[in-house]
Design a protein that fits this description.
The protein is of the alpha/beta class and 183 residues long. 24% of the residues lie in helices and 34% in strands. It is built from four helices and nine strands; from the N terminus they run E-H-E-H-E-E-E-H-E-E-E-E-H. Strands 4-3-2-5-6-7 form a six-stranded mixed β-sheet, with helices on both faces. Strands 1-9-8 form a three-stranded antiparallel β-sheet. Bound molecules: 1-O-pyrophosphono-5-O-phosphono-alpha-D-ribofuranose (PRP). The site of 1-O-pyrophosphono-5-O-phosphono-alpha-D-ribofuranose has 18 residues, from strand 2, strand 3, strand 5 and helix 3. Residues 43-46, 70-72, 78, 101-109, 161 line the site of 1-O-pyrophosphono-5-O-phosphono-alpha-D-ribofuranose.
C-alpha cells in the first residue's frame, strides 16, 4: 500500500470536510443552473483539486476550460499586478461561465479576469471559490459560491502552494513562521 504524505503545516480542513462542503455547494449550483449548460473555468494552477470536486459532484451539463491569471510572485503577498498567460479557447458567447478559484484574497485577479471575460459576451459570469480571505479584500468582488471563509493565514494544500510546493496535499493547511523555517 502507498505511504501517506508527511503532514505539512496546521490542518484547517481535511479531505472529508472539503468533500462534504463541495457536495453542498454542487447541490446549490445544480439548483441555480437547472436546465442550463455551464462552462467551469478553472483558474490555474491553484484551482485544480477544487475544480475536480465541482466537476465530479455537479449533475448539470458542464464543460471545462482553464485560464491562467496570476497576481502573486513567488513571495507570500500579492503584488496587485495581474497577468493572463493562458487564454481559454472555448467560445464563451452567450454561455454561462462559472470561474473556479482556489482562493480570493484582494480580489484583484478576479476583477481583472471578469472584465476580460465580459468582452466575450457571455450569458452570465459567476465565481465559485474554495476559500475566501475577506480580511484582505481591496476590491468589491463577492464570490457567488464559497467553500470556506479563512482568516489571513498563509494557506497551502489542495492546490495552493508555497513556492510551487504542497499543491498536492489532500487537505487545506496554514503555515506559521516555525513551519516555514523547518521546510
Ligand atoms: C492565487 C489564486 C487567485 C489569486 C488570489 O493565484 O489562485 O487567482 O492568487 O489573489 P487576489 O485575490 O489577491 O488576486 P496565484 O497567482 O497564486 O497562482 P496559482 O493559482 O498558480 O498559485
Amino acid at each position: 500500500m502507498a505511504e501517506e504524505k508527511d503532514q505539512v503545516g496546521k490542518i484547517l480542513y481535511t479531505q472529508s470536510a472539503i468533500t462534504k462542503r463541495a457536495k453542498e455547494i454542487c447541490a446549490q449550483i445544480d439548483k441555480d443552473y437547472e436546465g442550463e449548460e455551464v462552462i467551469l473555468l478553472g483558474s490555474l494552477k491553484g484551482s485544480v483539486m477544487w475544480l475536480v470536486d465541482i466537476m465530479k459532484y455537479t449533475t448539470i451539463d458542464t464543460k471545462i476550460d482553464f485560464i491562467t491569471a496570476s497576481s502573486y510572485g513567488s513571495s507570500t503577498t500579492s503584488s496587485g499586478v495581474v497577468k493572463i498567460s493562458y487564454e481559454p479557447q472555448t467560445n464563451m458567447y452567450n454561455k454561462n461561465i462559472l470561474i473556479v478559484e482556489d482562493i480570493v484574497d484582494t480580489g484583484n485577479t478576479l476583477k481583472y479576469l471578469i472584465s476580460k471575460l465580459n468582452e466575450r459576451g457571455p450569458k452570465s459570469i459567476k465565481v465559485c471559490t474554495m476559500l475566501d480571505k475577506k480580511a484582505r479584500r481591496t476590491t468589491d468582488i463577492k464570490p457567488d459560491y464559497i467553500g470556506f471563509d479563512v482568516e489571513d493565514f498563509f494557506i497551502i494544500g489542495y492546490g495552493l502552494d508555497y513556492d510551487q510546493r504542497f499543491r498536492d496535499l489532500p487537505y487545506i493547511a496554514y503555515l506559521e513562521e516555525d513551519d516555514v523555517e523547518s521546510i
